Amino acid sequence: MGVLRRLGGHPALDFVNTVDPREGDEQIEYLNSFEDLVQWAVRGRLIDAPTARVARTQAARSGSAGAGALTRAMNLREALYAIFGAIAAGRRLPRGAVAELESAWREAMAHAHLTAARPGFRWKLTAALDVVRWQIARDAVALLESDRLDRIKRCPGSQACGWLFLDASRNASRRWCSMDGCGNCAKVRRYVARHRRDGSSCSPGIPRSGIGLPMNSRRHA
After folding, report:
1. Taking Cα atoms as reference points, which of 182, 172, 190, 174 lies closest to residue 206?
2. Kind and range of the H or E run holding 19
3. Which of 102, 69, 70, 109 has its CA nearest to residue 83?
4. Closest CA relative to residue 178, chosen from 198, 153, 196
5. pLDDT digits 0-9 by tens, 27-40
6. pLDDT tens readout for residues 44-64
7. pTM, entire model
């Protein structure tokens, strides 16, 4: 699994963005196995190393267990894309996607318990096969309950980017998933248009910036 840049500004949106681009025919899938899912979650500090070990151990007990957990996580990912994509576009939330999230959240809370923290208490999920899906579901619901929904945006970049992000800029002016990626590509298109040249859109293989990433990848340089 390539190491993705986390540009969403929120764990649930970063999870949605584990496909590059989010739309179009030539997509790169970064979560191709249960191990990919666990590694992604550990790198993003959604789960800790001991929890990851338990999930891996449970997956190893059955050849289909890990695959099943990955499928359930991917179903949630697509539901979240539908939900937060609709919010970004000002559309009504799709019922099926909301039901998928509610199911995952209810399952998560059925496997959570209160534990002492500093300060106060917090809900801690039981280490298990579906722990990544549960954590994402909890994070997604927390975002839906927040006052930041008007800051959720969809990147309009070329190559059908479609990545979602939480705009944390002071004046809500962020437009692109990243300036060195889609933002830079837009500058290239404007430059080409001004000089009346062919090829008004960036294509795979053209760097996102002088020393940046290829157009069809979000991996760390």
Report:
1. 182
2. strand 19-20
3. 102
4. 153
5. 999 999 999 999 99
6. 999 999 999 999 999 999 879
7. 0.84
